[in-house]
Amino acid sequence: MSRKKIATVWLGGCSGCHMSLLDIDERILDVAKLADIVKCPIVDGKEFPQVDIALVEGSVTSDEHLREIKHIRKNATTLIAFGDCAVMTNVTGMRNYFPLQEVLDTSYKNAISNDSEGTMPDHPALLKLNDKVVPLQEVVNVDFVIPGCPPHADTIFYVLFEFLNDRIPDLSDVKKLKYG
């Protein structure tokens, strides 16, 4: 079996899924025997490389996220929606209940403004937010879903280990969801 390449990405989310990934603890060594983690929020690679498995946390909230998820899809053999934000927008999607301008005014108006009237700045550091937050599958084809907010570490390990061993995980058994 050849070594696989794994990438993890965090779009519009809270990083909780990545914290659960870290909770697989010493089992990361079992993953490392089969794969190289070539991109993740703590690996400072600027370009997204060709990978066998991409775990994508978070939803698509901005123009940057839209470009990024399309690029990831082109470069990943298997794309896994990692957690509930990636699957159904979860907390990040709560802003869909408000007009975008109201969200921007509430979030940024008092922090940065172009003039005394408090109009929205055109600042390069600010993401260009999309009108609506959308889950990954509304933008790209998703191959597998790891549910949860955040997913349980045992579930993450089970899914990774199955894919790394060229098997499709079966999450229908509650014991596998909790205990791997």
Short summary:
This protein has 180 residues and is α/β, with parallel strands linked by helices. It contains seven helices and seven strands, in the order E-H-H-E-E-E-H-E-H-H-E-E-H-H.
Radius of gyration: 18 Å
Write down how many β-strands occur, each being a DSSP E stretch of 2 or more residues. Answer: 7
Going across the biggest sheet, name each strand in turn. Answer: 2-1-3-5-7
**Approximate strand percentage:** 15-25%
Outline: globular
Helix/strand-derived category reads alpha/beta
Count the DSSP helices: 7
Q: Give the helix proportion (percent range).
A: 25-40%
The description of the largest β-sheet is: 5 strands, parallel
Q: What is the average of the pLDDT values?
A: 87
The first-to-last residue Cα distance is 22 Å
Low-pLDDT sequence parts? none
SSE order, as H and E? EHHEEEHEHHEEHH
Q: Could you walk me through the main structural features you see in this protein, from its secondary elements to its overall organization?
A:
The chain has 180 residues and is of the alpha/beta class. The chain is built from 7 helices and 7 strands; from the N terminus they run E-H-H-E-E-E-H-E-H-H-E-E-H-H. The strands form 2 sheets. Strands 2-1-3-5-7 form a 5-stranded parallel beta sheet, with helices on both faces. Strands 4-6 form a two-stranded antiparallel ribbon. Helix 2 packs parallel to helix 6. The protein is globular and about 50 Å long. The two termini are 22 Å apart. The model has no long low-confidence stretch (mean pLDDT 87).
